[in-house]
Structure prediction request, 893 residues.
Amino acid sequence: MEKKKYVYLFSEGNGSMRNLLGGKGANLAEMTNIGIPVPQGFTVTTEACNKYYDDGKIIAEDIINEIHEKMVELENISGKKFGSLENPLLVSVRSGARASMPGMMDTILNLGLNDQTVEVMANKTGNPRFAYDSYRRFIQMFADVVMEIEKRSFEDIMDEMKADRGVTLDTELNADDLKELVIKFKAHYKAVKGDDFPSDPTVQLIESIKAVFRSWNNPRAIVYRRMNDIPGSWGTAVNVQEMVFGNKGNTSGTGVAFSRNPSTGEKKIFAEYLMNAQGEDVVAGIRTPQNIEELAKENPAVYEQFMDIVATLEDHYKDMQDMEFTIEEGKLYFLQTRNGKRTAQAALKIAVDLVEEGKLTKEEAILKVEPKQLDTLLHPAFDTEALKAAAVMAKGLPASPGAACGKIAFTAEEAKERHENGEKVVLVRLETSPEDIEGMIAAEGILTVRGGMTSHAAVVARGMGTCCVAGCGELKVNEGAKTLEVGGVTYGVDDFISIDGSTGNVYAGQIKTVDPEISGYFGTFMAWADDIRSLKVRTNADNPRDTAQAVRFGAEGIGLCRTEHMFFEADRIMAIREMIVAKNETDRRAALEKLLPMQKGDFIGIYEELQDKPATIRFLDPPLHEFLPHEDDEIAELSKELGITFEALKNTVESLHEFNPMMGHRGCRLAVSYPEIAEMQTRAVIEAAIDVKNRLGYDIVPEIMIPLVGEVKELKYVKDVVTRTADEIIKEAGIEMKYMVGTMIEIPRAALTADEIANEAEFFSFGTNDLTQMTFGFSRDDAGNFLKYYYDNSIYESDPFARIDQVGVGKLIKMAAELGKSTRPNIKLGICGEHGGDPSSVEFCHNVGLNYVSCSPYRVPVARLAAAQAEVKNPRSKSCDSSAEEVAASTNN
Ligand code: PEP
Ligand code: MG
Prediction:
């Protein structure tokens, strides 16, 4: 058997080897192949990372040997030698997973420096300041990333020295200062670790590669993966690349470029750079960078070459590129390229423009926009009138659009904690770093004092769709004292601020927000998605307002109308309570009579909004005790209103108590006990449909859905009540009206016996909230309390209530769908659990042949796009697209 290869020179790979080489490695190989000036190097594969974990966090001997062999090849290519006292080779060591995870994992630069090679570098370049600056950065990074010594402790040493020299900028320290700093850094290293800083470059290299592998499982990488559906099993590759230096003096520099504007999508190269700096200075946002147009003045030849390469890369990848470049003494290099993260607005504009420029097909363009990102387009912006009245207290860079308002939180931990306690906060930081990820997720918006449009805060916020204002230098933030000062006014943790990520404006106080309007690129793009997809998208809605909103967002009907939500409203709850305390059927019917017109009115409103789109009405589901109070004083008050004694009501409350209410007297069990409830609900649905049909002419086919069925006979029992009632009303009305009766599949037994159930059910809707709860055997309400331990230990990677567990719950869905079709080939299949709006779950639903997904109104566009993407990835016949009417026509009620 041929020996497995774990290390590839850039010249041995290509762009299609992403899974093995990671995105960065594959792109470096591809760039090398198409002749872009790339410092050469090699990639240690993702398989090596997985093997490292499989072997108990050890890099196997043969992989280490392969690394050494490639290092020799790299030495030959570069004409330099690792650790050489004549021409030392220095390298960077960077992570690079299949999917880009900006800033989540570790990087080490200037590797190969030690007390000897630094001197050679100083002499060769005639620039000892540069050599010692590189060395001190390397010690700091290696200590932080590989040895986990706090970065801050090195910064403190440096700050002390700056104070001592009476300077404020790093660049004001001279070569001798930096030389002394290196001695201090190494002493600090030894004091903390007990060992000397490793001077052997080979040891430095292998330890750094291990550290990058380890960083695959650091907490922020795990959180990022969970947010972005990236499996832990992918592992990261490691790229070892010859260093080029942007900090060799005033003819050197480094920067970040986007081939189009990542905020607006404008077709114009957007790039920033800093002269005499290393990449980390730009990304960390410590110094504010210059616009690339300045380079046209400083070095027109390099500027022109730069613009050419950017255009070449975009044309090659047919997508907006995010690139890192370095100019070393006037020579330009590209260090990496990737498809750039972008705002939702930019993503849509770029996708539509690329199709119009003839560079992409519509199908390819559909895959370029992250469905979850569309969310950001659908959320509020500041009310223009309220905004006119507000005074701008400061202005920063419009780093990520949207509007946010909240009280000020000064640390990520504080933001997270206050968010968990129900407060809305805006995270205000000098600058953010990857450790802040959880606080950034928790915050309504992010405001930083330092950093440009490509700073960590800006890039991460755009990716998350969180509003962000960066580089707001006017603010004086004291993170320790938790104060923010501007214009002579001091703000603290109890003060509100509002930030506008589209303008960069910062305001004191709260500003009213308004719902967004969707048009232009969104409309064009979503119309393409609708043309492509075969999976329908409905919404979960139980009132006319939400229905109207969902229809505006493109919903093709209602997939779940939870009727109990109509009972909870203040003017109705009394009637339902009367029904619950009723002693006999007559009293219960009297109470239900009161509910009938209300419920019918709701359905009329909904049918009017839907016009002739279908609606699945789910009958009463929750345990009855949810409608009653539990505290004595509330029971006493209610007993007076109901005209019964305290004891009698207390008795009822106690008799309804259940140890496991989620597994108790709920769902269709209520209708089995009290068929008159199902009768009343049927009456309300059918009478409403008849009313709207007669008045407005819509061809309504009501879909009545019985919840929590586990046995075909219980479905049949309730269905008989429904059909008896419905047929009588339709007959009395003297009109033609078809209707359907179906069930939710949300109990494992229903999935297991779906072939029997399909004898009675004309449709299935997978209630994956309950199905997940009952399949896993843990509560949908408080599993969060312990799931975090499961994430920490990589037992589960994502919340099974948010993303379908395809292995277990998914198997039940697939099986039930197949069993259902075996009895009733035309059975209509949908999903209405929360998963219906989650892109990866939508893809799963497409793949198992469901007809539709149903999700909350604001997730409808997300689901429409996810459905289109699923179709592009795995085309299926549009015959799955049978509408309710077609299915109804094929059934015989
Ligand atoms: C479900 O269980 O998935 C469902 C949609 O019903 P509910 O959330 O109302 O229990
Ligand atoms: Mg349910």
In short: The chain has four domains: 7-243, 244-342, 379-514, 533-623+658-889. Residues 315 and 359 are 8 Å apart (CA to CA).
